[in-house]
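Journal club prep, notes for RB
We'll compare a predicted complex against what the paper describes. Inputs for the 2-hydroxyethylsulfonic acid case:
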Amino acid sequence: MAIKSLFTTFVSNLTYMNGIALITGATSGIGRATALLLARNEYNVIITGRRDELLDKLEMEILSKSSAEVLSLCFDVRDRSAVAEVVKSLPKKWQAIDILINNAGLAAGFAPIQEGNIDDWEQMIDTNIKGLLYITRAISPGMVERKTGHIINIGSIAGKEVYDKGNVYCGTKFAVDALTKGMRIDLVEHEIKVSAIHPGMVDTEFSIVRFKGDKEKADKVYDGLTPLYDTDIAEAILFILTRPPHVNINDMVIMPTAQASAAKSIRHTDSK
Ligand code: NDP
Ligand code: 8X3
C-alpha cells in the first residue's frame, strides 16, 4: 500500500485496510460483485444504488463475509443535488475516498433511431453520462487535495463499436470512453489514476432492464453462448487496483470468448 494511502486511512479513523472504495450501482450485477470482492480484499466499501432493501441485503452479506466496514447510500445518480449533498454529508471517517468505481448505468430499449423512445434516451444520457459526471465532480476534488485516488469507469464494448439498434446506449458509452480519456489528462498532474473497463455481454440484470422486465427477451441475449459473469469484471477491477503505483491500466476490453465483436458472436443451438 502506498504511504499516501496509509496516511489517508489513518486520518480517516477507519480500521486500517486498503482504502475506501465507493461503488455506484452496487445493488446488482457488476457493482454488487465488485463490492463483495473488494470487501474480501480489505477495502472498506461505500455501496450505492436506488434500491434500499438490496443495499441492506448486500451490507449484511459483506459484513458476514469479510472484515470490511460498509456504508450504504441510497440515491439516484441522476439527481444532481442529491449527489452533491450525499458526498458533502459523508461521515468524517468515510470522507477520504481512495477509489471511485463509476459503474451505475443501463440500456433502456432497443429500437432504431426513428422509433426510439425519448424518455429512454434521456434516462440513459442522464444516468450513464450525467450521473457519472455528477459523482466524479463531487468526489474528485478530495482526491486532488489528497493527491491520491483511482477512478475506474465502466464503459462497454458499446463504447468502442456501434451496433444495430444500439444508437443512444452506444452514444452514452462512447461518451464514457471520451470522458475517461479527458479525466486522465486533467488528473494526471494530481497523481490520480483513471482507468476504464469495456465489457462485452455480461449476464446481469442489464438485459432485463433493457427489455423492461421481459425475461424471455433478456434470456435470448445469452442463448447458446457462455457470457461473462459479474465476477469476471470484478476480478479485472481488483487487478487494475492492485497494480503498483507506477502502473496504470488505461483501458481494458473484456469479451466472452464466444463474442468477437459487438455484433459477432457464435452460438450453439440445441440439436435435439
Ligand atoms: P445491472 O442492471 O445488474 O446493474 C446496474 C446497476 O446500476 C444497479 O445496481 C442499479 O441500481 C444501478 N443504477 C441504474 N440506474 C441508476 C440510477 N439512476 N441511480 C443509481 N444507480 C443506478 O447491470 P450491470 O451490472 O451489467 O451494469 C453495470 C454497468 O456495466 C453499467 O454501466 C452497464 O452499462 C455496464 N455494462 C454492462 C454490460 C452487460 O452486458 N451487462 C456490458 C458492458 C457494460 P438501482 O436499480 O438499485 O438503482
Ligand atoms: C452492454 C454490452 O453489447 O449489449 O454494454 O452493449 S452490449
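Talking point for the session: Residues 77 and 83 are 6 Å apart (CA to CA).
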